Amino acid sequence: xxxxxxxxxxxxxxxxxxxxxxxxxxxxxxxxxxxxxxxxxxxxxxxxxxxxxxxxxxxxxxxxxxxxxxxxxxxxxxxxxxxxxxxxxxxxxxxxxxxxxxxxxxxxxxxxxxxxxxxxxxxxxxxxxxxxxxxxxxxxxxxxxxxxxxxxxxxxxxxxxxxxxxxxx
Length: 169
Hints:
The chain is built from three helices and eight strands, in the order H-E-E-H-E-E-E-E-E-H-E. The protein has helices at about 1-15, 45-50, 130-135; strands spanning about 35, 40, 50-60, 85, 95-100, 105-115, 120-125, 140-150. Belongs to the RlpA family.
């Protein structure tokens, strides 16, 4: 009975420690970073809330079969084949964006939780499922528009303040 209690306690500690934020961020991940000698400075939350961008999207597969993972996102989260998420070089993490495929008009809301793409000319990487929903999985690349919907999660979540429009007749 003591062995079972000890095993249960150990398992609880392991599971709870995996829920902590491995990246050490509290609210938003906005600290500068360097990849392959290139320095990146993520934008402040206030600026990001009103950010839109047009450019090339690509997709990447960081997931694996049956939950075995080759790596984690910048936020320390695992990516599974069924996730809809993406990576951006300078938006605060996490954030929610609306991505519009400008070649076919398809749109998708997704959570950004990783850094990248680090290939010149690309502005966002998305998971395979997101690429399929935006209908560019077979092509690999497409032109998109990104619009920030919110920055942060939980009590840190912030949305842009939109002006209310009134119609007068």
